[in-house]
Design goal:
about 25% helix; about 500 residues; 3-stranded antiparallel beta sheet; Rossmann fold; 12 helices; 9-stranded mixed beta sheet
């Protein structure tokens, strides 16, 4: 409507609402992590600053690992370790299973020449989080400190760095005991996320896998910022189905799933031969085909700071390294790629920061079996641990959604348009409104095309936006519906690079 002048002579300026309503691109690099463990306390290893490895070795020169050393003696007047809440001393728990340290998964470490578990890796000084430091003997490298988690089960905590995570979830990575493995899985994943370029994540833990559906995922629904979803180290079918169903419902996030360390024993640890019979989507070892999820193989090797404190002299001969699932590190790779290049860039052919090795070495031929099924491989390429796959679970069977970057770009476009067009609701449903819709959505998609997310030499080749009498017939208008049809040509990754070389005739 034209503005009417005020009843006095002179220049009069009026503010007119713009027809352009900007559609902004939302963040796609925020992750949500779910852990499962039924403990409110953990034990972390604390370094003894007075430790003298020379003196320790002199107590038993023939020692080949830390379990051969004599038992540590309690300082005078010190209370026994692992004191229960009522004050009675309880025996230390058995030593942790040696997972991913060269032996078979779940195999317990034993003393040389014996079949009994080694003594517990428990040192004097365990107690509440605020107990005074003890005067430890020079032959003792560490003590255990019991820490109460500040985060409660089911509480969603936002972390912008690894220190914030530790402050809420235990001040450190727990020692390797069965009751602490859930905290360890979660801690390694979040550490890998930030090490690989992640900036914000939301973390929650629950006490059982059943509570993922009952508590964790319902609370994640309220966190709109989450775009990447993971449950590190959880490899059951029920967890896979819960995460993918959540992503399908929310329509704004993508799941990274985990498989077992050696799913179904498909790779012979001695020969390295791969048996692909059971590595197919939908089996008990591999998640079902899904366009909103990806899975990676094999597990990666990282440094265990807890083991480094417990075994500073490397008596275990594994340099304080363990194998973990790659979920957290891959979430960080996604986040880094989104920031440095854009969500349209496939999160592949990039280094996995913090990875020191691989559980299995995958050859080209072996990847040729896994890749069509959408099992993305992490390989040693030119001396670096590199992500070498970019497919959704199911791969070729997913058709137009076989590539991770294509699906994630599409999800981000849908969310951006949904959030950026709320102003349309209850506006008069007229051709004037339709023209505004076309103008605003086209401006947004032109921006995505200029970023490189859409394929085409011109915007007309990259996308179309249609909102007119054809898409809005009288019946729809009578029912309060305004319909816009949009098509986008999202770029595909150059997965197979071919060079055709031939010898040419010599020129005089």
């Amino acid at each position: 409507m034209a503005q009417q002048p005020q009843p006095w002579p002179g220049v009069q300026v009026f503010e007119i609402p713009s027809a352009a309503q900007s559609i902004a691109s939302g963040a796609t690099n925020n992750a949500g992590f779910i852990g499962v463990f039924d403990t409110l306390e953990i034990e972390i290893a604390v370094v003894n600053e007075k430790y003298d490895p020379t003196y320790r070795k002199s107590q038993n020169p023939a020692a080949t690992n830390k379990y051969d050393l004599p038992d540590f003696a309690l300082p005078a007047g010190a209370a026994p370790t692992n004191t229960a809440a009522g004050g009675a001393a309880t025996p230390p728990p058995p030593a942790a299973a040696a997972t991913g340290t060269g032996g078979k998964k779940g195999a317990a470490a034993t003393q040389p020449g014996t079949s009994t578990p080694p003594p517990s890796e428990t040192a004097p000084g365990t107690g509440g989080g605020n107990e005074p430091a003890m005067d430890l003997p020079a032959d003792q490298p560490y003590r255990l400190r019991r820490v109460t988690l500040k985060a409660q089960p089911g509480e969603v905590v936002m972390c912008t760095n690894y220190s914030e995570f530790l402050a809420a979830f235990g001040e450190g990575i727990a020692i390797d005991r069965p009751e602490y493995r859930g905290q360890r899985r979660l801690a390694f994943a979040v550490q890998g996320f930030f090490a690989n370029g992640g900036s914000v994540c939301f973390v929650v833990y629950v006490r059982s896998e059943a509570q993922i559906n009952e508590i964790a995922l319902p609370r994640f629904k309220a966190v709109d910022e989450i775009a990447i979803l993971a449950a590190p180290g959880l490899t059951s079918k029920s967890v896979w189905d819960s995460l993918t169903a959540h992503c399908a419902e929310m329509k704004d996030r993508f799941a990274i799933l985990d498989m077992d360390e050696n799913p179904g024993g498909v790779i012979n640890a001695e020969t390295g031969n791969l048996s692909a019979a059971d590595l197919k989507p939908g089996t008990e070892f591999v998640p079902s085909r899904d366009k909103n999820a990806a899975v990676y193989f094999p597990w990666i090797q990282v440094e265990d700071p807890a083991l480094k404190v417990v075994d500073p002299d490397n008596y275990r001969n594994d340099k304080a390294r363990i194998f973990i699932s790659p979920t957290g590190h891959m979430a960080g790779v996604y986040a880094r790629t989104d920031v440095e290049r854009g969500v349209y860039k496939a999160p592949a052919n990039t280094a996995v920061r913090g990875a020191l090795g691989l559980r299995f070495k995958v050859s080209k031929e072996q990847q040729g079996i896994l890749n069509p099924a959408g099992i993305n491989c992490i390989r040693n390429i030119n001396g670096g641990i590199t992500v070498w796959g970019a497919r959704t679970v199911g791969g070729d069977a997913n058709g137009e959604w076989r590539y991770i970057n294509v699906r994630r770009t599409f999800l981000s476009i849908m969310e951006d348009i949904e959030k950026g067009t709320q102003w349309i609701v209850f506006e008069p449903n007229t051709p004037d409104l339709w023209a505004k819709i076309v103008m605003n959505v086209s401006a947004y998609l032109t921006g995505r095309w200029r970023q490189g997310a859409l394929f085409g030499l011109t915007p007309e080749q990259a996308f179309f936006v249609k909102c007119d009498f054809e898409t809005n017939p009288p019946a729809d208008r009578e029912n309060g519906i305004v319909r816009t049809v949009i098509g986008v040509a999202i770029v595909r990754p150059a997965e197979f690079v071919l060079f055709e070389i031939s010898q040419m005739a010599q020129q005089a």
